[in-house]
Design a protein that fits this description.
Layout lengths: L5 H6 L2 H9 L5 H8 L7 H17 L15 H7 L8 H23 L5 H7 L7 H9 L12 H30 L3 E9 L2 E7 L8 E6 L5 E6 H32 L3 H26 L6 E2 L4 E7 L2 H10 L6 E6 L4 E5 L6 H15 L12 E2 L4 E5 L12 H15 L4 E5 L8 H17 L3 E5 L3 H9 L3 E8 L6 E7 L7 H7 L4 H10 L2 H82 L2 H19 L7 H38 L14 E4 L5 E8 L2 E5 L4 E5 L3 E3 L2
Parallel strand pairs: 5-9, 8-12, 8-13, 10-11, 11-12
Antiparallel strand pairs: 1-2, 2-4, 3-4, 6-7, 6-9, 13-14, 15-16, 15-19, 16-17, 17-18
């Protein structure tokens, strides 16, 4: 356990956090355990508990949701088992069964989904489960909490006989009811129940005519309640059987109690396990409520809280629908102590409490509201001095109490301590108290303790500025509106804005002026200088942020322009290529047109072929990049060109011979057959075709030919008659 007193926990409002967490518990024992939580210093215990809480939080958002862990507390039953020869009640076994079965369900679930719930399974693996306790209870007790008929042969016999006797009583009573009703001896209500026994509602004037036992009368005396003689014998037997049943049930319960008694410690471990699960569940629910996360647990002495929220303030502002301002603060070996200054109501105390409360929550295994990349180390001792601690009971003034507190700090403070002091040095003469506070701060510094203090004392601000491993900080304030910004600024002291705030709150300027004259001019100038520096730094910070924003915008715009320029250049090059290609094609087309026109005029094929070859060679030469070639390569290329020319000449000669032969054959061929005039009904086929059809109609030198399966429209010139 961490060394921390209850007053420190109260100062940090940790009990209020536990109260809020306990509201999410579903068992009373879980609530009690939550309210009794205290911080740990063992890193392994803290890390395991935080990871279990984180796993439970994740289960609310995935398909493998953890089963219900609700159970009825068995603490009283376990205490009763410790008493020799004691016997539990039937309902006690229902509670014990609830605990054992819920434990079994959870252990089975975590084993099945071990991959998702590694830390919860590690915890579950420490529980030794015994199944025969549940089996024995279920064998004797039914789901309604009653002893089963077959719990023993004797009980089964008794209950069978009970059923028979009850039927006989009902049968005999019905007969008597019918007989006396017909005789008109009964009142209008006819029957009633007295001491759990059915009775006849007999008119008092006829009670001597009805055989049976009188069990009572109405208030007016007009009705006498009688049990008929026919049912009396059976009723006596029923009472005897009920007594025997009760005794047999007691014997079975006693036997079952003795069976369970040796496992009381095991049952207690089951209840402790389920209580622990309920605590983790409530922490997980609270973690979701405050957006709690698991930060990085640092092995080095470093405390880096980024965008940290005070959980109580966060929840309160959520209800009020107001904004909560996060704080970022850092402590490490080169910056162990932070002195926060600035005007009242600026958020100094809240920042101080936020650091302390989050540290205590984390070391209690509770997720905390900050950036998940924050880093937190663990402390063995946390010490606080927050608020007005005037003690009426001990007759101590505020300053006396604070001196006693400082004495405790001096005795216990070391390099594993986190100290948090609000309004350090107040309660006495400013100069004397400030000097003493300065000495205390030097001692804390020498002992390498980590800490945060808030103060208005100028000498403490100067000391923080002089010590190499300490730093000043201030809560920012709008110098124009004099409203707090609730943002911590490290590296610079803050002015108290005493006179400015007084002026804003309506104090006359003449009184403020008189007040200024009553104090040393140097102090006024010093405070004014700090205030002016703070204003200038605030302006510079805003200007710097504005310049950074503008620089980022300019950088983004420059990138976008570069991208747009590159795209435009790419498009331009593409369009240029297309234009050049089109121009080349147009020039080529003109050359071909010129060659065609020349050939049309002179009909010289050889000249046409030579011109075409030249044109092709020229175009091919354009496609290849000019390369400096050796003489041997040039010779080979010339030889290749010569070969190509010879091949082309040979092919041209062959074409000429072929065409010459075709002309001579055409001269020798017989004249073409005269065309036959086609008419509707002629059998025709297309020239050089095989399919034969019949002409259906002829219109404007076109005929519709029917081929049987289909018809088609064909020019007459393409048809020939089939004989």
């Amino acid at each position: 356990m961490i060394r921390i007193d209850s007053k420190t926990l109260t100062d940090l409002e940790f009990p209020s956090v536990l109260e809020q967490i306990s509201e999410f518990c579903i068992t009373e024992i879980g609530k009690e355990q939550i309210l009794a939580i205290a911080p740990f210093s063992d890193k392994k215990i803290i890390a395991a508990e935080l990871h279990r809480t984180k796993e439970f939080t994740a289960s609310f958002q995935n398909d493998n949701r953890i089963p219900n862990h609700g159970f009825e507390e068995i603490t009283k039953d376990l205490r009763l088992l410790e008493i020799e020869n004691s016997s539990l009640e039937v309902i006690s076994f229902r509670r014990i069964l609830s605990v054992t079965e819920t434990t079994k369900t959870l252990l089975k679930f975590f084993k099945k989904f071990e991959e998702f719930y590694a830390y919860l399974q590690e915890q579950a693996g420490q529980i030794q489960y015994v199944g025969h306790i549940s089996e024995e209870i279920q064998k004797n007790i039914d789901k309604y909490g009653q002893v089963k008929d077959d719990a023993s042969p004797e009980l089964a016999t008794i209950r069978r006989r009970l059923g028979v006797v009850k039927n006989q009583i009902n049968s005999s009573f019905t007969k008597a009811l019918t007989r006396y009703s017909q005789a008109e001896y009964l009142d209008e209500i006819r029957e009633s129940v007295v001491d759990n026994r059915r009775v006849l509602a007999v008119k008092s004037m006829y009670r001597r005519k009805v055989k049976g036992a009188v069990l009572g009368q109405s208030k007016t005396g007009s009705i006498t309640y009688m049990e008929p003689q026919e049912t009396l014998e059976y009723a006596n037997e029923l009472s005897q059987l009920i007594y025997e049943e009760r005794e047999e049930v007691k014997r079975i319960i006693k036997m079952l109690t003795e069976y369970v008694r040796p496992y009381s410690e095991l049952l207690e471990s089951y209840q402790s396990y389920l209580t622990g699960i309920d605590m983790i569940y409530s922490k997980a629910k609270y973690g979701i409520e405050i957006n709690g996360v698991l930060p990085i647990l640092s092995s080095e002495k470093r405390l880096y809280l980024k965008d940290a929220y005070h959980p109580l303030l966060l929840i309160a502002n959520k209800k009020r629908k107001e904004k909560t301002f996060p704080q970022t603060i850092e402590l490490h070996s080169n910056n162990r102590i932070i002195v926060i200054s600035g005007p009242n109501a600026g958020g100094k105390s809240i920042t101080l409490k936020t650091v302390g409360l989050l540290q205590v929550m984390l070391q209690s295994g509770i997720l905390i509201p900050l950036d998940p990349y924050s880093e937190i180390c663990l402390f063995e001792r946390i010490m606080t001095d927050i608020g007005d601690n005037q003690s009426i009971e001990n007759h101590l003034s505020t300053y006396s109490y604070r001196l006693k507190k400082m004495n405790q700090f001096l005795k216990k403070c070391n390099n594993k301590t986190l100290f948090l002091i609000d309004e350090f040095g107040t309660g006495s003469d400013p100069e004397l108290g400030g000097a003493l506070a300065e000495t205390f701060l030097e001692v804390f510094y020498e002992r390498e303790a980590f800490g945060i203090i808030t103060t208005h004392y100028a000498n403490l601000k100067l000391l923080a500025n002089e010590l190499p491993h300490a730093t000043n900080a201030n809560m920012q304030f709008d110098s124009k509106s004099l409203e707090p910004i609730y943002k911590l600024q490290l590296g610079e002291a803050g002015s108290s804005f005493t006179f400015e705030v007084a002026q804003k709150n309506g104090i006359p300027y003449s009184l403020i002026n008189r007040s200024k004259k009553k104090i040393e001019g140097g102090k006024v100038r010093f405070d004014k200088t700090i205030a002016n520096l703070q204003k200038e730094r605030s302006k510079l910070r805003k200007t710097s942020e504005s310049l950074k924003t503008e620089e980022e915008k300019a950088r983004d715009e420059s990138k976008q322009l570069e991208i747009a320029n590159a795209r435009a250049q790419e498009k331009l090059e593409r369009y240029q290529e297309i234009f050049d290609a089109n121009q080349r094609l147009l020039a080529l087309g003109k050359k071909f047109d010129s060659l065609a026109e020349r050939y049309n005029n002179n009909k010289q094929k050889r000249q046409l072929t030579d011109e075409l070859m030249k044109l092709v060679m020229i175009e091919n030469s354009k496609r290849k990049k000019p390369v400096v070639k050796s003489k041997e390569v040039k010779k080979k290329e010339k030889a290749k060109v010569h070969e190509i020319k010879q091949e082309v000449a040979q092919k041209v000669a062959v074409i000429r011979k072929k065409k010459k032969k075709e002309k001579e054959a055409a001269k020798k061929a017989p004249p073409p057959k005269p065309k036959v005039t086609l008419k509707v009904g002629d059998r025709v086929r297309m020239i050089d075709g095989r399919a034969i059809g019949t002409i259906d109609t002829i219109e404007k030198k076109k005929a519709i030919v029917n081929y049987g399966m289909f018809t088609t429209n064909v020019s007459l010139e393409e048809l020939e008659k089939v004989s």
